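A further point concerns the way the authors explain their paired sequence and structure data. Nothing conveys this as quickly as seeing an actual entry. An entry of this sort, consisting of the sequence and the corresponding backbone structure tokens, reads as follows:
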Amino acid sequence: MLNRRRLLTAGGLTLGGLVGGTLLLPRQEAAPALAEGGLAAGGMGTHHQMHTTPSGTSRSPAPFRVRMPVPRVLSPVSSHRDVDVYHQDIRASRVEMLPGVRTEVLGYGGAFVGPTLRVRQGRRVVVRYRNGLDRAVNTHLHGGHVAADSDGHPMDLIEPGRTRYYEYPNGQPGATLWYHDHTHHMEAEHVYRGMHGFYLIEGQDERRLRLPAKDHDVPIMLTDAHFAADGSLVYAPEDTPNRTTLLANGRPQPYFPVSARRYRFRLLNVSNFRTFHLSLDHDMTMVQIASDGGLLPAPVRRESVVLSPGERAEVVVDFGPCKLGDRIVLNDVSGPVLRFDVVAKATDDSRVPDVLRPLPPLPALGSGKTDREITLKVDMVRGAAYINDRVFDPDRVDIRVRRRSTEIWRITNLDTDIALDHNLHLHLVQFRILDRDGAPPLPGESGLKDTVLVPAGASVRIQVTFGDFLGRYLYHCHMLEHSVGGMMAQMEIVP
């Protein structure tokens, strides 16, 4: 049985009622063992070798001591007429996160933030993932419109020492997506320990807009962590209050040098549970130009941006009026996240046009009735998390949806007694937010979304159109300790 503190903090939900198992897929082949820096491929991957409960004194450095890195961009190993091929190794490594300390992580390319894939709309990509760990893993392209066998279903696993090919058609509009592990029961710990990276689709319409580009288009991955006294990552589901070190691209509260000009920042929240409330000091504002599914119809000036786990927002910040030596801090309600140091003057021919990407009209639905009622709830007594009063069962299809159909879903958070927030992420599709408790969507929610925050006691209605892909896909809370605890369900797209 869970106590109230554990439930409120993540929660720390048991796995009772969840069904395990492994489904081996075709398109796998043997891979040689990998090693780096004296670590065997799975050497630090066994659970007894990693901190899984709080131990010793927490370690957190003073802010702004280290520079924020920009994740490296992965190059294709080969390119053909209509496809680019990439190779990704998933392996254990020790990396510097805290200054002067090496921390054990699990990651793509052995990094805490995996390499960025920058791809083009309409150009197909194939990624070969090779599992150099001692446990089964997989990869989900969060926000991607992909076939079911490339979606990274929790039961579609890459066994240790094996490889698998995922195909991404990139037929959707340009957007900031991300990839991460989705292994059944283990997704929360694997993502926490570093199994994530950016996947950026360049839209065919973006070049003419003259938004900030190249070195002035910067992806920023935000999360939180608990470091033990020896610098190791502490992981336990009930430990969320102790994850007090805020990370930007894997470094604690870093600084980042900028020129006095416009920048496009792609903000992504990969934390397991924290919702970021972001604002700039010095009375500076951000101009939001995109959300999960890509560019908004028009830019929106924001005093603050709220991102629940899995959500993205692209913002343009104009440092042009700043003086050399100015320091602008990006803050969360819990403290500073990142400092921008203005170090150089620059010419700037970028802009933020008044019109970005007009949305297609919503399909007419006749009466406009709600097609699906989706409820989110945790049970303190049973220690489980539910969608529509059920915990996840990979052998059960919860709803069936017709291919190319359009539906309205109402998502309701029933956790009013403990005031626990949730969110909901749909695989395969983007959706439009119609209203929140009958009121219009919040600023910045006018575009396409795949993850939506649903506060305690609130309801959100979304309209979603399903495309041509068939098969089983997930919808779940992206507060990952909740999805591990059962707040996950399956939809099957049928002809």
Summary: The radius of gyration is 21 Å. Residues 4-9 form the longest helix (6 residues). Residues 1-51 have pLDDT under 50 and may be disordered.
